[in-house]
Specification:
With 103 residues, this protein is of the alpha+beta class. The chain has one domain (2-6, 8-91): Alpha-Beta Plaits, CATH 3.30.70.100. It is 33% helix and 30% strand. It has two helices and four strands. A four-stranded antiparallel β-sheet has the order 2-3-1-4.
Length: 103
């Protein structure tokens, strides 16, 4: 399994609800259709939004990064996400989870 962590700093706090809605409506459906998709998580904190994507291979994770960047441009979210994300990507070497209630 391969994970990519994207950290967006300087997020327009007046637009976090819009960003969250658009992620649900258009980004997550697109990412979930990619081969090897294992999961997507969006995390909101003060001035920062981060995401974690899980894929079977690094090539599939790289494709998700390309799609995410394209999505920001297509949705015209550059002013809401003014800084390029800081990316951390690598092989998951330990993992344990259990199903949690949906938010």
């Amino acid at each position: 399994m391969h994970a990519t962590f994207r950290r967006y700093e300087g997020v327009d706090q007046d637009r976090t609800d819009e960003l969250t809605r658009k992620v649900h409506e258009s980004l997550m459906p697109r990412l979930s259709e990619l081969p090897g998709f294992g999961g997507y998580y969006l995390i909101k904190a003060e001035g920062v939004m981060s995401s974690v994507s899980l894929f079977e291979t690094s090539a599939q994770a790289d494709e998700s990064n390309r799609i995410s960047s394209e999505w920001v441009r297509n949705e015209k979210l550059e002013s809401a996400l003014p800084n390029s994300p800081k990316l951390t990507s690598g092989t998951v070497v330990a993992h344990k989870s259990r199903e949690l209630a949906a938010v």
